[in-house]
Amino acid sequence: MSTSSPAIPAPVLLGHVFLITTAILYSIYWAIQYYDTSNKLAPLLVFLFIFSISIGFVGLFLFYTSSVTLLMPARTQNGPIIITGIALFVISLVIMHTVFKRPFTSEIFFAFLWAISEMNIIYSIYTSGCVGKGPFYIMAACVLACTAVNLVCYRIHLQLEDFRRFINGLIPYVVFIFLMTAVLIILFLNRNPKNILN
Questions:
Q1: Sign of torsion over alpha carbons 11, 184, 128, 76
Q2: Angle CA(106)–CA(113)–CA(58) in degrees, nearest 5?
Q3: Domain boundaries in the chain?
Q4: pLDDT tens, 40-78?
């Protein structure tokens, strides 16, 4: 007897496209901000910033709605992932402040907001039967790698100057674009239902 595994919702794929686009646009924003010392492109910077943040939140919203849809038939709960993510965020803030004397800036908040949302949606996809263990572990590793790079770059960012600070600020976005494109490819290749022998 064979059953069919559920298809990955299209909003999940679209959400990843939006978030990758956000990273690309913000990388452009970051580069223009560094090189445009005369502020001739200030209006463009405002547009890039607002547009990239907006589509980024749309991407996260698509993750949330897709996760709810996937979890309803699967009857699974992702509470532990969210709680663990928030706990790690708080612990990171405490360590950064007390050990490394790193002042809080919004980058670390958005990094964890994305990481929790991403881990939540790929776990929902996995528990709903859309992907197997192999693809799930690969995608989870990509999320952890992105988060680790974010934390390292965040810790040392204010200690750097000029071009080194520019490159350090760019690295997390480049890594994100590369690894999330890999995740998107995995999701795209597994987007259609497959027959599973029971």
A1: negative
A2: 100
A3: 2-197
A4: 898 999 999 999 999 999 999 999 888 877 766 545 567
